Amino acid sequence: MPIRIVVVDKASVPVVLCEVCQQRIDSAKDGNVDWRAVDTSEPQFTHKGCSAAFRNGQSYVHKSMELIAFVEGLASLLPPAPKKERQ
Ligand SMILES: [Zn+2]
Fold first, then answer.
1. Ligand 1 (ion): which residues have CB within 5 A?
2. Distance 67 CA to ligand 1 centre (A)
3. In this structure, which of 17, 22, 79, 81 has its CB flanked by the most CB atoms within 10 Å?
4. CA 53 – ligand 1 centroid, Å
5. pLDDT, tens digit only, all 87 positions of the chain
6. 61 CA distance to ligand 1 centroid (A)?
7. Nearest Cα to 67, choosing from 36, 35, 21?
8. pTM for the whole thing?
């Protein structure tokens, strides 16, 4: 799973690397998450343009979703944001 921590301007930040071209996926709207079509499998991150090549190169059936949908799914695990008081 190509999620890495890199240092940018002395800050450690997470990045997602494409399984195919190994380049950063700079925006969730430009990426896909592919996974082996079984009950439990490891997500593989690809650029949308690299996703089909990745799936076609696999010996198992893979599914795909947009990276933004994956991130939104993870975000659903977060506790609700506290309500702001009106002033
Ligand atoms: Zn790529």
1. 18, 20-21, 47, 50
2. 13
3. 17
4. 10
5. 689 999 999 999 999 999 999 999 999 999 999 988 887 889 999 999 998 888 888 888 888 899 999 999 999 999 988 888 776
6. 20
7. 35
8. 0.80
